[in-house]
Design goal:
This protein is an alpha+beta fold. The chain contains 2 helices and 6 strands, in the order βαββββαβ. The chain is 17% helix and 34% strand.
Length: 111
């Protein structure tokens, strides 16, 4: 075995997959709720092919395999912007999924 796990990807690996045509799929794991002026919930990200035949879960590290989880919409939108998504359609109900495509040029966005 070569040490790679086929169904997980790190953030750097995700950038590579996006440049080869993969999409980001945002999955709502916990229904979002508004607290004061912010939205909280639980979202995870998968890299998927356009036909949906191959999916890879975003993890924090290939050695730990801890699923990367987003707890706020602000954090999730920031991540999508860093991945060069030009819009963010965020599922608010557990079980819902939305796909995002990265734009050309995957350099990190700056403000």
């Amino acid at each position: 075995m070569d040490g790679t796990t086929p169904n997980v990807v790190t953030e750097d690996g995700l950038r590579d997959l996006l440049s080869s045509g993969y999409l980001i799929e945002v999955i709502c794991d916990q229904t979002a709720e508004k607290r004061h002026y912010s939205w909280y919930g639980s979202w995870v990200v998968h890299a998927v092919t356009k036909d949906g035949q191959d999916a890879k879960m975003l993890v924090t590290s290939r050695s730990v395999f801890k699923l990367r989880e987003f707890k706020t919409i602000v954090g999730l939108v920031s991540f999508l912007a860093d991945m060069r998504c030009l819009s963010a359609n965020i599922p608010l109900i557990a079980g819902r999924r939305e796909r995002h495509e990265a734009s050309e040029g995957l350099a990190t966005a700056t403000s």
